[in-house]
Design goal:
It contains 1 helix and no strands. The chain has one helix at 13-23. The protein is flat and about 135 Å long. The mean pLDDT is 68.
Length: 178
């Protein structure tokens, strides 16, 4: 038994004959019909397995890949007895005794990384404060109480009193004309 031919959607038979006559050849339909399309299967990804394949034969509650990855352990350097560097001498089996180990400070995980390459914690001495400004000499004491004392040389101006000088050196009569 022969395979049934797939009937693709096309125009009617009369219009097909007219189209082929006007084209001067047989019309070829596009290849976007389901039996003519190639398969679009995606190959499986080829990525390395993580640490979870070591736990594949265990129960689900013991299979946790996150707990198998741990940061490296940084051991602090202890101040203790010096190690014997002479290979001819016999080394004690215990190494350094626990009583001989002492830390000068609490162990820390390590030094901080200077991401931008600058040390912001340098010990820089504070700059010396500037010398104070010189004080004007005190005004002389008035001889009699009838005359007011002269104002000090650097007394502040009173903003409430009108001034005789214009606020700007360019008064209307001194403005340059262009």
């Amino acid at each position: 038994m022969s395979k049934p031919k797939w009937d693709f959607r096309d125009i009617s038979l009369g219009l097909q004959i007219l189209r082929e006559f006007l084209l001067g050849r047989k019309h070829t339909l596009h290849g976007r019909f389901p039996p003519k399309m190639a398969s679009r299967t995606i190959p499986p990804p080829d990525i390395p397995r993580g640490p979870d394949d070591r736990y594949s034969n265990q129960y689900y509650f013991k299979r946790n890949a996150f707990n198998s990855v741990k940061p490296p352990v940084v051991a602090p350097i202890a101040e203790g007895l010096p190690m014997n560097r002479d290979p001819t001498k016999k080394v004690e089996s215990g190494g350094v005794k626990p009583d001989a180990v002492c830390f000068s400070y609490l162990p820390s995980p390590g030094t901080a990384w200077w991401w931008d390459g600058h040390c912001y914690y340098e010990c820089v001495p504070d700059p010396e404060p500037p010398p104070p400004p010189p004080c004007p000499p005190p005004p002389p004491e008035p001889k009699d109480c009838a005359t007011p004392p002269p104002p000090p040389p650097c007394s502040p101006c009173d903003p409430c009193q009108p001034s005789n000088e214009p606020p700007c050196p360019l008064t209307p009569d001194k403005i340059p004309k262009h």
